[in-house]
Amino acid sequence: DFGFSIRRVQFPSSRRGGLRTVVFAEPSDVRAGPPRPDDLKNGLLPGDQLIKVDGRSVDAMSREELQNAVRNAGNQIGAHLQR
Q1: Structural domain tally of the chain?
Q2: Which one of 8, 11, 32, 69 counts the least CB within 10 Å of its CB?
């Protein structure tokens, strides 16, 4: 357990009227109040967008592939986030 859940959301896209998929990594434990400096530097905040997991773009992964990548990561996981 890395302390976050994955949420996939689709938004209307300006390109050709399709849908754009965005994957969010939501922290399991959210503290009240504004983010602390350590949270901003090292932590996961609500609304952080998950871009890559272990070097692979989450856009190219199915839900099952993404879940398995997180489950099978062991003690560390490489995650690229956009805040």
Answers
A1: 1
A2: 32
